[in-house]
Amino acid sequence: MLASTACFAILLTGVLANPVRRDLVVHEFRENIPSGFAKEGPAAPETVLKLHVGLFSNNMAGLEKALYDVSTPASPIYGQHLSKAEVDEYVKPTDDTTNAVLDWFKSNNITATKDTPAGDWLSFSVPVSQANELFKADFTTFTHTSTGKQAIRTLSYSIPKTLQDHIELVRPTVSFPTPQTPVFQVPAPKHANVTADSCSGGITPACLQTLYGIPTTSASQSSNKIAVSGFVDQYANQADLTTFLQEFRSDLPSSTTFTLETLDGGTNPQDPGDAGVEANLDTQYTVGVASGVPVVFISVGDGGDGFYDITTYLLGMDSPPQVMTTSYGETESDISIAEANKLCNNYMQLGAQGVSVLFASGDSGVGGSNDDSCTSFVPTFPSGCPYMTSVGATTGTGPETAASFSSGGFSNYWGIPDYQASAVSSYLSTLGSTDSGLFNSSGRAYPDVAAQGNGVEIVVNGTTQYVAGTSCSSPIFASVIGLLNDELIAAGKSPLGFLNPLLYSATASAFTDITSGDNPGCNTNGFSTASGWDPVTGLGTPNYAALRTAVGL
């Protein structure tokens, strides 16, 4: 989901009054329509908008400390994840904040409902005409030119000055998420210097088991689950999964399936023609690699805001799945700083409860949508969020090298977290002045790890085909974590939860270091791989046996 950059800001300066309130100030705005969208005209006044108001939480700094305390191996309370109720205590707004916003709603005859258990998100529905007046906005219809999908957005909105310390943001307003999926089809691979016969025809579960030492024995803990995110009308087909298992995992029952959850009007039709390449990939390489680990496919419809709604769904559960893998992403600058931060904080909440959140890093190197007209490197979202794990891609097996499309770099929104400071500093010292000024060297760096992402064999509509993308890599790495969690739970230990402090503190032997390849874009060669961490393949690809040792098994 990559588009061109845009500039965001949150301003505290006053603007002219509107008829509803005389103290409105601009809260967020963007200067330009993002690349890939076309303005159609004013949204129909009678169209009803469902708006969500994010309230400032009372103690996110405290929750961040708690997250690191339970996620850092050297901590005395490592693995003692928080309950939903404990997380909610950090996240819930103060009474002053809640009352101030509810009073404003009441004065405008608005009835709001809570979106989250903590009450940090409130939602309400009003017609466009009222929303324009309430927020001094100009809600307009925009079309995403490559898909034809339409969205109603505004380039700026205002809130009462007295609510600036209470309202973090309103959405959907100035953010323009791009409704695309990154996986792409490729010809059958030709691997040179193949290290095992199981990889000679392409990447399959057997190849991954050989390459990474992934066990074939079936998991035993039914409480341990992997959630697979599904968006943009991508449907996971059970018949294709059965065929996939028969061909590539004949040791597993061919009847093995996933469970289904739907949000925002999402569905999962089983007509062969509806089978989605991305959805099939993600379910086949979790069910087919994480042997016996229950998989839930969460199909999110177009009736809401996918990334937010799936986290809200999980945060509402007392026992959410221990791993969530998502093979979608966006350009960081297409999301406002406020909205990106609020969503990133949702990942913090999930991590504190023991959920490992993984995302594909993106498929455009450093360029963003493979756009060589860019004048600086283009970070992806949410890979820049410090509370999730970003997965890059490799190709080949003798040895593995970086996939040239593997997105990686440095966030413009978040700084370098402590857990990766040493690794990133070492890389920057090696990099020297190369590409100086094209990226934010003080930003959170990604990806964190990598896995195979080219020539991956899947079944779609009964036919075997090869695909590529970091969207292959994320479910593969998620399966490794799911199997480790199964062993940990069987041993009476906690699941891994937020991974990064562990991953960056693990011994080098826990990963196969990738030292060949780069990720070009913006008329440059992009970043190069290096010994240790690099912004193409992260720490490297998994070594299951060494990771078992690192997690205390």
Protein architecture, described:
The radius of gyration is 23 Å and the shape is globular. The model is unreliable at about 1-20 and about 190-195 (pLDDT under 50). A hairpin with a 2-residue loop joins strand 24 (about 455-460) and strand 25 (about 465-470). The strands form eight sheets. Strands 12, 13, 14, 15, 17, 19, 20 and 23 form an eight-stranded mixed β-sheet that branches. It folds into two domains: about 10-55 and about 90-170, no CATH class; about 230-505 and about 515-550, Peptidase S8/S53 domain (Rossmann fold, 3-Layer(aba) Sandwich), CATH 3.40.50.200. It has helices at about 60-70, 85-90, 95-105, 130-135, 205-210, 240-250, 275-285, 305-315, 335-350, 420-430, 470-490, 500-505, 545-550; strands spanning about 10, 25-30, 35-40, 50-55, 115, 120-125, 140-145, 150-155, 155-160, 165-170, 185, 225-230, 260-265, 295-300, 325, 330, 355-360, 380, 390-395, 400, 410-415, 445, 450, 455-460, 465-470, 510, 540. The chain is α+β, with helices and mostly antiparallel strands. Helix 1 (about 60-70) packs across helix 9, helix 6 (about 240-250) packs across helix 7 and helix 8 packs parallel to helix 9. The protein contains 13 helices and 27 strands.
